Amino acid sequence: MGFLQGVLVLVVIVAFDLKSALGSLKHRQSPSSRKPHSASASRVPDLSSQGFLSPFQKASQLPSLDYRKFAQDPLGLQEKQLLQGPVKPLDWKFPVVPEVQRELAVNFQLRKPVTPSSVAVQCSEDRVHVEVKKDLFSNGQLIQPSGLSMGGCAVVGEDSASGVLILEYALQDCNSVLMMTEDELVYTFAVTYTPVAFAGTPITRTEGAVVGIQCHYQRLHNVSSDALRPTWVPYASTEVAEDVLVFSMNLMLDDWSYQRPSNLYYLGDIINIEASVKVYNHVPLRVFVDRCVATQVPDVTSVPRYSFIENHGCLVDAKATASSSHFLPRTQEDKIRFQLEAFMFQGGSSPSIYITCTVKATLASAPSDALHKSCSFSNGWLAADGNHQVCACCDSTCGPEGRRDAPVGGVHWEGKASLGPVMVQGRQKTLTRLQ
């Protein structure tokens, strides 16, 4: 009897174990077990319908667990997709700097100066009387009496009403040269003008000149005289230009419509200069010329040098030399224009002039102030934008040098721009005979 009970219990256990194994196999082969959301469940052992492992299940029948893979990938595929979410493609590109418009052909003709009639001569029986206009070159620049002489003899008088300087000496004085021909006696003199630099500056706006004067006497006739017309010997004077904020300076035509195709000027001419800032991908800006220095070579530290805009936008040339140099009223926020009378360095070894300027830009919405202004002198200091009170400091100090102060309305940007060489010629001088 005991033996039969044992066999019966063994058969029941085998049947139960077989049923459990068949159920696990069906579960592995069912389609739902292959879905992504049940992937995490497949990593744990199969449970019986009562939720417990069979105590007689063999260890070899348990699904193997890859704990290293589980540690590396603790989240399932679905959880990863939920965490990452959709990724928006990048649409940013580097900004494209627009092409600079090609220069248009400009109908430009350089106006050559006309020889002025500014020296008059009267030859008497034993003396020569010479009158020289103070505006010797007919360019508005008055010569200094100390620079004028005739054969080493100085000016003896001045007619202020007529604006002339007077030299009068005996025919045998002032290193005169006597020549005799078959019919004439000829006394030759040389009236020399040596330009004098403006007080406190190394520049002059007049060319040196030598005017030949001759008094002709007929051996058997009366004394005659005539006026002479001086002409000129050439000289010279200079031009070059420059972030994504780009500062630049250009020479312009008289009507400011285009860049000037020639860099050649004559003494007494007006040089039109336009400073600008290009505002690629930027808010509107207002440009200022902070300071400018003229030199004979590109090195801004070389000597001689002439600072004609200083003190944060004060164009001091007009006050220092009584010139007509000035800023023009502003017509565009990103451009500022000014006119500079042509000049040259006295006794300079080079005919070239290089102009180097510090240019600033502020937000167009920011008001001008003592450190950001464009002031000209004409019986007082005047601002190009009409805010004249910001120019009150031009005769003193408008701010510490080297300090980069921002305007009242915000920040500013600063850069360098230059021109060079700009050629400024004098006028050719020739010797003219009296008949």
TrEMBL record:
Subcellular localization(s) per the UniProt record: Secreted, Extracellular space, Extracellular matrix; Zona pellucida; Cell membrane
PTM entry text: Proteolytically cleaved before the transmembrane segment to yield the secreted ectodomain incorporated in the zona pellucida.
SMART domains assigned: ZP (SM00241)
Domain ZP: residue ranges: 122-382
GO terms, biological process: binding of sperm to zona pellucida; egg coat formation; positive regulation of acrosome reaction
Protein name: Zona pellucida sperm-binding protein 3
Organism: Carassius auratus (Goldfish)
MF terms in GO: acrosin binding; structural constituent of egg coat
Lineage, top ranks: Eukaryota, Metazoa, Chordata, Craniata, Vertebrata
Signal sequence, start to end: 1-23
